[in-house]
Amino acid sequence: MKRTRSDALFAEALTCIPGGVNSPVRAFRAVGGQPFFVDRAVGARVWTVDGDELIDYVGTWGPAILGHAHPRLIAAVKAAADHGTSFGIPNPFEVHMARLLCRAVPSLQKVRMCNSGTEACMSAIRLARGFTRRDKILKFDGCYHGHGDSLLVKAGSGALTLGHPDSAGVPADFAKHTLVLPFNEPEALRAAFATYGRELAAVILELVPANAGLYLPRPGYLELLRELTAAHGTVLIADEVMTGFRLGLGGAQARFGLTPDLSTFGKIIGGGLPVGAFGGRTDIMDCLAPLGPVYQAGTLSGNPLALAAGLAALEELGAADIETAGRTSTSEADPYTRLEALGAQLEEGLKTAAKSTRVPVQMQRIGSMFCAYFTAEPVHQLADAMRSDRDRFRRFFHGMLDRGIYLAPSQFEAGFLSTAHTPTDIEQTVRAAAEVLRTL
Ligand SMILES: *Cc1c(COP(=O)(O)O)cnc(C)c1O
Fold it and tell me: How many whole angstroms from 207 Cα to the centroid of ligand 1?
């Protein structure tokens, strides 16, 4: 990989941006070396400022489910820009987006837009606390819900990658209201509710935890969570910032048949522009200002450019056709059918490649999300994920990058496929992986 321009830019960035990056995982600390800078991205490819072409499995950390620079999305943003970039007074996109989200995700009766997944999760927590008049919340170790104070306790993603799952700057007086449990352990959940159930304002979780790599809920676990929260008057918040419109139009909750009280969104619903949303039961949502006492606001919330991009993405995914096409389309043209086929091809290919070497790999996948852990043991929670051989991951990452395949620069991030990936891209990726695995 050529690095001349990237290295020059990074050297300059280090003088004026902390760590040279605006979000920590981008700094490549977990894998060593320095980040490359991107000049442009189209479809499943990114081009570095030094002219290298890479097959991209980061997909801007989730949003790029249609690949980069999708023509429909770019046209929508350009058309919106011609009408002005922000009004600070209602615009029609806001109504379209709210209606579309409520139709696609049945647990949403009302939604409010904001500007990031972090904001959505922070606001949902405040709302749950205001609604229940309780302070404590419960989260799971390795789950990431953005960088709000109450949520940076045993967090995943960059916090975990850098080995600081608890952040400095969060007063102990805040953190003490956040209870943390290991994921997928029903007994721990029952015990926590037996002790704290009546004090818990909310439980927040990723239904498919994907910020410590990727692992799936065990059968019955989410049902138990729904049962316990309902019995104790605790608000169940499904963080679908990553899984929303990724695992299907109804998100992870449709896939697992769960009806949360509140849900949070981001990433895909902004089509690569800064967007978040939270929504759910009307009686809870109506506690928000101006109707209720829970304050939440945003100068740029419902921004026309961002929502134009998000709406174009959701329409392209089929969200506007729900009433006509139904939810269970399995036609070849359905983007989720295509993503599933690409995912299965990648999973099979990588499993076969791993089997032919002696490298132990747990290949995790659901739909178009995947992660390979370098361990012989199955992974169901953070403690299992931590057993992955991270030095092997580091060498795997660089070996793949040298062969033009860009994976997330951390063991604790999921990989993403887009509808712009082709079976040929996957074949090329599997061939590269087979080569690299042999060197590990
Ligand atoms: C990315 C992510 C967030 C935070 O969203 P930002 O837009 O980065 O603030 C929250 N929850 C989950 C599950 C995420 O994957």
Answer: 13
Helix (H) or strand (E) holding 250: none
Chain CA centroid to CA 51, Å: 29
Q: Is the pLDDT score of 322 beyond 80?
A: no
In a mutational test of the pocket of ligand 1, which residue from 25, 114, 118 has the highest number of ligand atoms less than 8 Å from its CB?
118
**Percentage of the chain exceeding pLDDT 90:** 90
Terminal-to-terminal C-alpha distance of the chain: 20
Look at strands 45-48 and 38-42 and give their pairing: antiparallel
Residue 58 has pLDDT above 90, yes or no: yes
Q: What is the pLDDT of residue 167?
A: 86
CA–centroid distance for 115 within its chain: 15
The pair of structure tokens assigned to 187 is 């007994």
What would the pLDDT profile of 325-348 be if each residue is shown by its tens digit?
555 556 667 999 999 999 999 999
Q: Could you identify the atom of ligand 1 that is nearest to the CA of residue 23? A: 8
Ligand 1 atom at minimum distance from 239 CA: 13
Tell me which residue of 229, 128, 120 sits closest to 177, measured CA to CA.
128
Domains and CATH numbers, the chain: 4-69+330-437 (3.90.1150.10), 71-321 (3.40.640.10)
- CA–CA distances in Å: residue 237 to residues 97, 143, 183: 20, 13, 15
Examine the pLDDT at 145 and tell me if it is beyond 60. yes
Cα angle at 27 between 400 and 37, to 5 degrees? 70
Catalytic residues: 144, 239, 267
**335-355 vs 423-439: helix axis angle to the nearest 10?**
20
Q: Report the residue among 242, 246, 264 best suited for mutation to probe ligand 1: largest number of ligand atoms under 8 A from its CB.
A: 242
Residue type, 333: A
Q: What is the pLDDT of residues 368-385, one digit of tens each?
A: 999 999 999 999 999 999
Bridging pattern class, strands 362-366 and 276-280: unpaired
Residue in 241, 406, 312 with CA at minimum distance from that of residue 71:
312
CB 423, CB 429: distance < 8 Å:
no
Average pLDDT along the chain: 95
Q: What is the pLDDT of residue 158?
A: 79
User: How large is the average pLDDT for residues 191-219?
Assistant: 97
Reported pTM: 0.97
What's the gap in Å between 58 CA and the centre of ligand 1?
14
CB 56 within 8 A of CB 46: yes
